[in-house]
Task: structure prediction
Amino acid sequence: MTDDQQAMTNNLPTMTGPVCPVPLKHSEKIVLGHGSGGKMMADLIAKTFLPPLDNPVLRAGNDAGVVQPELGPQLAISTDCHVVSPLFFPGGDIGRLAICGTVNDVAMMGAKPQYLTAGFILEEGLDLAILERVVESMKAAAEEADVEVVAGDTKVVQKGLADGLYITTSGVGTIFPGVEISGAGAKSGDVVILSGYLGDHGIAVLGARGELGFESDVQSDVAPLNHVIAAILATSEQVRVLRDPTRGGVASTLNEIAQQSDVGITLFENAIPVRPAVAAACEMLGFDPLYIANEGKFIAIAGPTDADKILSVIRSHPYGEGTAIIGEVTAEPPGRVLMKTAIGGTRIVDVLAGELLPRIC
Amino acid sequence: MKYVTEYRDADLVKGVLQQIQETVTQTWVLMEICGGQTHAIVRHGIDQLLPDQIELVHGPGCPVCVTPLELIDKALAIASRPEVIFTSYGDMLRVPGSGHDLFSVRAAGGDVRVVYSPLDALKIAQENPDKEVVFFAIGFETTAPANAMSVVQARAMGVKNYSILVSHVRVPPAMHAILGSPHNRVQGFLAAGHVCAVMGYWEYPPIAKQYQTPISVTGFEPLDIAQGILTAVEMLEGGRVEEVENAYPRAVTFEGNQPAQKVINQVFEECDRKWRGIGTIPISGWSLRPEFADFNAEMRFNVGEIQSEESPLCIAGEILQGLKKPHQCTAFGKQCKPEHPLGATMVSAEGACAAYYRYGRGINE
Result:
């Protein structure tokens, strides 16, 4: 042993006891994590929004509220705020996002979305040409989805009080007769279908922000899914759960379903469709594609006997490329999502905690 | 993803696991140093596929976890100043200081930004000449070269409004501290491949020799980790306890990355460093050399005097030393979760507690 090594051995620290600071509960101020679609947002809803506004429809916690008016058929109603930066990104823009987000939330209840409203918060100084581009894009998306924007509202705030342009849309649609879709409908033995490649939207937006630090040609998947949903509902009566995995990603969405339905869900790592460019970007940033936002994908949970029929309907649709069965519903462990890893291990897939953070190295 | 998927090939991994099974004749305790390896082990379920005789304990190699509380408090004090744009790697934002975290500073109006590299922070400094831009320079030998380079470039370009808050730590002194502890259980090490890619592994043979503990330089993909474990087990079973072997030769050489080491030595000097949960380890850190004192945020903002007291609520210290597993903590998964971390090991994606929690080790088992 050299003198240096001897000195080092002699100078070893006295190991201090257990140490850690007290927990931080972000109880007094809103932080970004409250809007990330993960556990912090779920807590905010459960503790701040739900108690004063409580009713059975809201409590069901679905993408859209399903209501039965005194006259007429059952309706699905949803609302969605859009605050994306930048306003234009590869594959879409805030206008297309605002139409598709609400169309999809209504469609995920087994409804045919028909009418939308749109609210605009505009920042003083916004170029009118930008607003015109956004509205043109809304028009195109609404035509594609076969919905109409039938009412709207506009407010302008002082420069610096908003980031260009925010859009809130609400939508309503009638539930297809005889269809009952709910997050609580998954049954043991059902298959979990994902309608294509994961994470395209989140990575496209990060790329457009210049936050990837490298060039990426990933396009957002933002798209109206109501037509493909109508097609599978016309094909099979075995569809029990539909949901679009937006913020929080597939992991958070499946955890919600597992809890609402009180079932376990097991995913097969090998079966999960991720584009190589998205996988590579996630690898470099330390993100898991299961937690990245999608705006043109849905999860369908359905009885196993119709699985092939449903798969072929989705795959034949323009927005169904890469559709795959990614998992199965099990009785155990209730409320949890597991992953069979490619090499044969098992792990739990939890919901996103707060804001998605890139890791240090 | 070419050159990565090959190292996740299930059949190849199973082949190496089989070799480990055939080689092992007794129990061995191995420590993986690096938090990235801990994460990969539980993410892929490698620990479940090893023979029962092999126990993996998780080392202190998460830079977020070992950053001392008082440095985080200094960061919070600097970030709260109105003239400062505080830049950091993302996962430092949620690490709790004594009172709050960087997220809270941002919510209270502080300008806190996530960057992916200190060179991005330097760019922000150039674009905001009326602001003071501070980068939170934490990490092991892996992040040190880029952090050092940002200072060299700032000086060369005459950027005066850039400084770094340094808490660099080094792996070899931590290995000394663990192996020299009277409670040590570690019989073999998986050395951190990324650190060795920068530093080489010339520092390790004296450690292996001094403590009769073999060291296997190990990568991060499932096949790399399996290969690293096999190499360590072969050395242990063969009685080659003074040896260091490189099981990650596609990335690591004995000498390491010479230009990277050169810029580190140009900017940083060795210093004693406090590790959160462990204590002060001699010459285990790097700090700015006196000739770069202009770029030292602690001096620029006069926060050198901040002292912080840790309160005894979690067992991160024992976990970071490999004495306990995360689920042996009574708070694990109960009071302590990623959204409400009691300790830094639950915060970072590379922290052992966060890895255990996210992938369900020790929960409902």
User: Anything to note?
Assistant: The first strand of chain B starts at residue 28 and ends at 34.
